Amino acid sequence: MKINPYQPDQSGMAYSVGTTLDRFIKLKQSDFPFASGELSQLLRDIALAAKIVNRETNRAGLANIGGAFGQTNVQGEEQQKLDVIANIRFMRALSKGGEVCAIVSEEEDAVVDLQNNSGKYVVAIDPLDGSSNIDVNISIGTIFSIYRRKTPIGSPIQQEDIMQPGSEQVAAGYVLYGSSTMLVYTTGFGVNGFTYETSLGEFFLSHPQIQAPTSGTIYSINEGLEKDWQDGIKSYVDQCKENRFAARYIGSLVADFHRNLLKGGIYLYPATKKNPTGKLRLLYEANALAFIAEQAGAKASDGKRRILDIVPESLHQRTPLLIGSAELVDEAMHHIQLAKEQATI
């Protein structure tokens, strides 16, 4: 039986597996008649920076750019050399492209105002997630969110341009630097994945219209923090074990999320005694992955509410995160709710 190499998107239009990212973006421009090509160019800028970071990551051991940089970021986390390099690469690509007016980065204390008042978009980005895994050759990634500014074009950026809930994203994605490098993104019309072909220097469509399984048999959580988990998480994990789920935890958010998105499973980073408001950042980690998850038929919650409904109150705001197959997220939230009800009895 022949396999059909053409996959339709939600509009019924078919795209060939093997289509280049650049061509795919051009073909999809009609989804954004208001954008006049700027969003498409912005996605190309991100893809270009990802290619450069991929190159740097692959030669990290040879070029002595692995390991700690010797400074900490605004979260108090030790910066790795590649954190700094990746931040510079994405900052340059986004600032020179001309479509962006402001950038929120994990590696920057404050909003980076590009003084480009004609820019239509705000980008929130974690340039290199899981970078501490580089020295042991484990997959790492980049996570990004794109928002349309709220204030009029030509005016200085304001707080309202930055502090938008995830539901306002016009695009989001991640790059996974692993055994192969993949760029996965959504513009609100499904999720598509592209694999990087190094010999040609191009991303090619390899995973069209990704749909997450509604359930799964994988749970991903740092079990070393079990004694500090919020109420309800332990009973849910115990249920996963009783059902003979596989425990798979890489410690790299993008890699764990990507595996569960394709195979079915749930990733949990709940509130703990040390981090009662969670550890993952809302603006440039949770929001992007939640948007992708929902577009693929999965779910994302902080244990009480939909991630995309949370209105941010601070730039580096943290949040608990339960994300993955819809049925598993619902069940985890049920356990949290039961624990809350029992605590009030």
Automatic annotation (TrEMBL):
Alphabetically, the GO molecular function entries are:
fructose 1,6-bisphosphate 1-phosphatase activity; magnesium ion binding
Source taxonomy: Bacteria, Pseudomonadati, Bacteroidota, Cytophagia, Cytophagales
What keywords is this UniProt entry annotated with? Carbohydrate metabolism, Cytoplasm, Hydrolase, Magnesium, Metal-binding
Which co-factors does it depend on? Mg(2+)
User: What pathway or pathways are given for this protein in its record?
Assistant: Carbohydrate biosynthesis
Which species does this protein come from?
Answer: Algoriphagus kandeliae
Protein's name in the database: Fructose-1,6-bisphosphatase class 1
Homology family: Belongs to the FBPase class 1 family.
Question: Residue ranges of the Fructose-1-6-bisphosphatase class 1 C-terminal domain?
Answer: 213-334
